[in-house]
Structure formats: structure tokens, C-alpha cells
Amino acid sequence: MNIKILGTGCARCHQLEKTAREAVKELGVDATVEEVKDFNKILAYNVLTTPGLVVNEQVVSSGKSLTKAEVTQLIINALAKEEQKKGP
Prior knowledge:
The chain is of the alpha+beta class.
């Protein structure tokens, strides 16, 4: 799983990264969490307000701070989609 935090390095972006790392750790998920600070790369995701949260190349949130519970649920949803793609 790949998780990206889109933002310019503001306090809200750092908080979202910290929250995402905590959620990944608590879930025991094999995931990389990275910050994307390059404005052109952020725009490539069509995110105009930061912070943005991208899970497996899908923008799942932008422009708001998320709680750990919210981030955890978004990761669980992405895991469920992965399982559906694998099929029976």
C-alpha cells in the first residue's frame, strides 16, 4: 500500500502525515507513507487545497485535517478494494 500526504509542509500536512503513520502502525499494514511537497505533483492529483491524502493513487481527502479514526477507515476501505480486485 502506498500513502501520500500532499502539501507544502504546513503544520496540518505534518499532522496528517503523523496521523497516517500512526494508523498504519496500529493496523499492522505494510505501507509506505511519503510526503509530496512539489506543487506540480500535487496539482497532478487535481488537489487544490492541502493537505491531501492519497491511498493507492486515489485521492481520498483534500483540504481538511482528519482524525486517526477517519484515516484508519480510509485505509481499511482501500484494503477492501484491494481484496475485491484479487477476487476469490
